Fold this protein.
Amino acid sequence: MIEELRKKAEELLKNDTVKVVFGYGEGSVPERTRPVFITKPEDVNKLTWNKYCVYNLTTYLKRQETRKLGKPAIIVKGCDARTIIVLLKECQLKREDVYILGVTCDGVGDPLATKCKACDVHTPLIYDDLVGEKIDNKEVPFEERYAELDDLEKLDEKEKWEFWQKQFSKCIKCYACSNMCPLCFCDRCIVEKNQPQWIDSSAHARGNLSWNVTRAYHLAGRCINCEECQRVCPVDIPLNLLNKKLAKEAEKNFDYRPGYSVDDELAMSTYKEEDNQEFFK
Amino acid sequence: MEKLLNKNKFDTLIAGLKKQGYKTVAPKKDNRLVTLEEIQDASEISLDHVVTNNSIKEFFFPKTEKILSYTIDKNKVEMEEPKGFAVKSVIFGSRPCDAFSLPVMDKVFNWDCSDKFWVERREAITIVTISCDKSDSYCFCTSVGLAPDAKQGSDVLLTKISNDEYLVETVTEKGENLVKELESVFSGPPSGTPDRQVATVEEKFDLKKIKPWLDENFEHDVWDDFSNKCIGCGACTFVCPTCHCFDIVDECTMTKGDRVKNWDGCQFTMFTMHTSGHNPRSTQGMRWRQRIMHKFKYYIEKFDSTLCVGCGRCSRVCPADMNISEMLELIDTEAGK
Amino acid sequence: MSKAEAKPENQFEPKIIAFLCNWCTYAGADLAGTGRKEYQANVRIIKLPCTGGIDPLFLIKAFERGADGILVSGCHPGDCHYNSGNYHARRRWNVFRPLLEFCGINPDRIQFSWISAAEGGKWVETINGIVDAVRELGPFESYQKLNTIGPETSGGATDASSETG
């Protein structure tokens, strides 16, 4: 697989199809990889592929420093490819401006990442080129996909509040979650605006609740649960539980899962006349 | 003063500290991280780690704190300064790298004005450091002039000499007083030369070569090349024991408000954004350069001290695997050319 | 309980913030007023052009500043002055409400309704309903504990976030 990836990358750079390849390289320790940006064909040996390739590299499609390297070929797993579909739908990207080098994947992370346990995109749904043995994308039932939420949903109101207050009290407002998230691409995030200050930038209980709830809400119907936010959180807040809850509600109420088809309408930009309104008086 | 402390006396020690009115902070395991937090008894302590996820910085310089509160009533403004923020505490289980950050930060917090929030907490808190008996590949304290059993910044230093026993060395008067207060917990002094079980931390780069190279290479491709993967979050600056930038914000309603001091980080895009819209550090390369320059050049010029203790926390938490010691090794190599 | 009967002393009076759309519910509330209909006075109205313009962040801000309950009300589906604003709003609340519930906020503190300009009576009913419901639930203490603006001595609650304080 690694050889095939390197060969493809070399080809793409040599015949100038792309100016840079976003991929995975060796990390500072054997249990990590890191994002690499290959601009010269002779550097393709820096590319690697192993179970530590957890990053969602699509986040670099939003950053000016990596955008200015030129048209990229980006190595994506099935989950990452879903992000590209959402970015295309949200007009953040033109299809012709990115070369998608898909890789088939049967799970990353050691121990296996939670997202991989219910994966139904072992083979990416969008790509220009595919590397690796094609793996069948088996459908995973609804309950299994959101099983992670079961324990928390069983708690009563007070226990839920205490759980999240404890988690949010750890938050240091480093914004690693939103900086890493490929779909948090606002030039100026709402938390950075201070006329007025809608979300307190302070890391106190009020500011932390406001920030985490708002960020989760802004990802409703968009987040594809790559779990990067949770991975990068320096204080180990289970952020993906919030995002998964919203994904569950979006699917339950609107029969919508983001990132599966370029032809789907975005859940929050559209509506149906028969949308649920049981809770309206 | 030298004494001995047996592990089986930990609960007496913690109970004793509580009785003497100290709030005790120690490493505690929480899911997959070990963090320094307040504990009530010794059973909560976990010592099987290299460094805790958080540094001791937050106990002297919290992530958010009110520095002033006020109420407005017709023509009157009444202000209230916070009291009682300096709580008599013991941090039990700091690491030498953490402890050393305190005298380093003392310089900037007592520079052009004395930051009472820092100073009063420094007086109220006693540091009991435990030397490192293991390290990992992220540690580089020895490259910045420290050691896994360095004493600077600590009030008391504990070093493992056997599976159950620690050598206790008091470093300051404060430390000596603490040991005297809880005399019954300690035994010794040790006989002969104790077998200090201290980790080996390989030197990774030559600190003496770094500043001269930085002096000459403000413009260099390496700044952009190395920082391409950086996502511009604040994780590294916030977990760092020596990063001390802060932002002051006002949080208020029509009738009352607070002036609040929050951690800030030079890696954020908006950190140097001017009201005019101009941003002097508009690319991540410039911001990464600032981080290295501040720690290994500017702070030395101002305060004759490196603004880094080699704990490696920044590199451990970095979402994109930006490794600071790797950067410094690169500079060391470049400097040698 | 729509007449202002003799209320027991020291009864908790909830603060209800109502985000209303200008064309329907606000007009409905106006109609209740011109019709001299009495209802509990606990509501503070914030008028917006359309429910489609209500950012869920407004609700969080309302709770931060001391609201015990919130009402969001607009035109009936199909009757939006701007055609589809209320449809988009409905979608938003479908995901935001479960999110708040997931975080431990009682969903009965946030109520939604469609009230048209002609429904002065429904306005009165809805307000009395939400005031009674939130009175039952009591003050939103858990959120208000987070509202720590101001000096400790003046009633800004103790700063629970200070690490060493």
Summary: Residues 207-336 of chain B form one domain.
